[in-house]
Amino acid sequence: MTAETSQTLDRGLRVLKLLADTDHGLTVTELSTKLGVNRTVVYRLLATLEQHALVRRDLGGRARVGLGVLSLGRQVHPLVREAALPALRSLAEDIGATAHLTLADGTEALAVAVVEPTWTDYHVAYRTGFRHPLDRGAAGKAILAARQGLVDDPGFTLTHGELEAGASGAAAPLLGVTGIEGSVGVVMLSDSVPERVGPRVLDAAREVADALR
After folding, report:
1. Which of 14, 24, 26, 168 has a C-alpha 20 to 30 A away from that of 137?
2. Domain with residues 73-212, CATH architecture
3. In this protein, which residues make up the domain named HTH iclR-type (predicted)?
4. Does this model's pTM top 0.90?
């Protein structure tokens, strides 16, 4: 800690990060141990965070992330979208296919930015806000591959007909971006994805990740 930082705020943010990293919540004792502070300090932190709906405690006393973080999270999407648009535009124009940035939202993949090519006679309509299961479609499968540590050479995922009949997709995960699980991809009307598309999608995903760091 430095003179310019707040120890209490730092501890509160650490509480949120610890709770975000667990599915079953944490007790006051567990938080006290992980933070290296006494239980009284943890009680005060939780009470303050509860007032802002950022933390909730169940009947067993375990603390979990509260619904208040959703309103904060919704404001992140426009910033992420803005950072990704240049790379998506370049990708869409280069490949001649609809490019998209997709983020994990629970068990679903959520398209938060979509760019369609300007020079093609036809392309797949893929709208911002479109959702689909993470285990279907290139975008979601690329996210799952990164989550499971399965991203390997060549580093991108190809699918056909999983979300729309006759459509193929290619996607690569965003790597090295703290707090964001996502992928960059394209979707096109074709029986297969041309060989050069996968590497180009991978490059675009790296560009977006660099813009978000």
Report:
1. 24
2. 2-Layer Sandwich (3.30)
3. 6-67
4. no
